[in-house]
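Morning F.,

Quick status update on the modeling queue. The single chain you submitted on Monday has been processed. Sequence for confirmation:
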Amino acid sequence: MQSYPSSWLRLALLCLALMIGCLGVSAVLVINQGAKQSFAQQEQALFPLVGYQLVATSTTILSKTDYAHVRRLGVIEAVALSSISTILFDAQHHPLTEQPVNITGFDSLAVLNYLATQRVEGKLTPRQAEQSELRVELAKRSQTRAFVNPHLYAQLQAGNILTTAQGQSLPQLQQVNLATMGYDIVMDITLFARKFGPTPISEIYLMGDITPQRLGDIRRLLPAHLRILALPGPEQNAGMSASFHLNLLAMALLMFVVCLFIVMNACQLLIMQRLPMLKVLRQLGISRLTILGGQLIELLLLACLSAVVGVYLGVALALYLAPGIQATLESLYRVSVGFSEVSYLSLYVQVLLLSTVGITLAALLPVKQLNQALSHADNTSPSGRLWFARLAWLTVVLAAIALWCSQTILVSFLTIALLILAGCFALIACYPYILNRVGVLLPDRWPLVHWSVQHSLWLSGRSKIACCAFFIALMSNIGMNLMVDSFRQATHDWLNQRLTANYYLYQSDEQDVPATIKRLQLDIEVVQRFEQTAQYAGLPIQVHSHPSAAVFLGALKTQIKLPQAGAIYGAGQGAYVNQQFALRHEITLGQSLTVPLAAQERVFQVVGVTYDYGNPYGQILLPPQVFPADSKRANVLALYGSDQQIGVLHQALEQQGFPPKKQLYSARQLLDLSMATFERTFIITDSLNLVTLLVAATSLACGIIVLMQDTRPQLTLLRAMGVSRRMLQGLSLGQFLLLCLIALAFAIPFGILLGWLLINLVNKQAFYWTYPLHISVSQIAVVSALSLALVSVIILLPLLSANNRPLIKDIRWLN
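Structure tokens below.
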């Protein structure tokens, strides 16, 4: 501890790297745990264990008569819902929400009767009984109040008067701490009808843990035009979010591993500074094992202290990010996530174990070098490049085998890890060959440059870890940037091809824009798709209509299609499916597909597979003529008309009290809004890339500080021979930049391969859709130039400091 005052910078660097790594891991563990608890507790709002839904076969519009008939048949599990979606305003008509909020009315009497029956029969578990008490109290109060989760309650400033876009006032709101309230406002269906007028039944759910026998009884009781549709349960939703959890955890572990590079270099700096003292201790008779054990114990104690601070800051970061994470998960998975209950002890034990393993691995190389120094071993042994070449080929073969066998995301990440290792081994093995070749090509009249290149060969053997860190940072930057840039280009082309109409209107449930256009006799063609939700292989799918005219079929961006796709589709015998549906269910081109449509099942031929970026559901596109005329229509209308005609419609919407600025968009506006949302979504990728480069450059700078001590005699001799300080600084900078350029040359092909794996392996397995890889030379050039500029600045700082000492001081140090 007496050496701490003189080595505070190295200790601070080591502890800071550990704290940052622990902070990232603990924050992600807290976020994942909160999300998983919410999924584990997931139920359908106020309804216990909703796993099934009643849908109409003859038409997608359910009626109140259907619900009353089902209840009279003895299906006590049935509960009806009515819902609208609207933006909420305050008393001054200022919008309080950017996105529409779902307002749902439910039959509270049906819920009360079902819970009472279950309690009497003793069919509720203790947790369900506790939850049912809360639901009973809420159902009793539902005649006068509406319920929201605390997050939405705070956003709405619920103490004020709230109105819909049509000026209808909301009842008094009450906070409900249920995990699955989501972004909804829930109230009794009678209160809903009193506030918003008569609305059709949206859904009929079946409550409770329904046994297969009871499910069969319900099917026999149902009238012919109603059928049961299974809903995705909590396990399926958790499976849908598995990639979210896995990506967060992988990102945190990557940050932890990168921080270990700094830990490794900081350990080298500490040991280098203490080496004279440790040699004295060795000469006094203290064993090497005792000295090495003392260094490791010190590192473990520092890891314990750093883990405490890292865990505390990680939990604080998770709580700070909680509102944004809640909004993201609510929009994606319709659950509310809380992070209030955190087990600090359990979290600390997990992070400490990870830190112990990490710092032990990071200290292996410095401790090995210390052991060699204390035993007077020769550190100038051959680099073993033949072994690195063999390891590179071995990891390439293993990566190819893993790629061939990859069926899960974990195996895909293993493939990527093997690819990164193969790149590192190949880089280390090829450094001597490339540097020797460069030395041969240089003219003899440049002796200092010859020395610089030969010295680079020596540096490559001493800075393997730092060079590998820089290679990994460059490779990940190039791969991630190519992936994002390809997604950006694919999304822009896809939207530009799909948006064929002049304007698009997002109407609410209370609007009938086609009737308004007809009443005003506007010369506007309206295209409104049919849509329904069906089930295929136990999973929900979307069945939508798509016009069969050539202009509309040309708007579909297809991956593959039959030569006669348009003719078969126009004849009402073909169907287009999206990538998600084709990959999830292994659908092939030309295959016959049975589609549940209206009151019967029809068979269509798959004529094409379309790109459908971002859609979590499988989708089937059918010609409009195969849908019944009374099928449910989408709320998005494509409008074909002149700007003058659209302007008249805009004024009519304003007079009806609807906000046209939030409903009516031109094709260009939609494209710009979509791309702006894309850029905001991936801005974190740019930040992570910059952080990765900074960490890698810092690791390289730490390695330079260590190596400058070893090269000090040679540099002092060159200065004594008359070589200027600036020349030595330039030669030293050139040596490291030459190593970085070689690493860049290796990182570009490996980065391109990484981008391909992320798109065609990880993205495909996580989301069941892919997009073409767009190799942008300008993007690679920008990343390369930025990386070299950043590393040059960081490398130059320790070089200037090391070569700025007076010559006489270095000569005295040699003596």
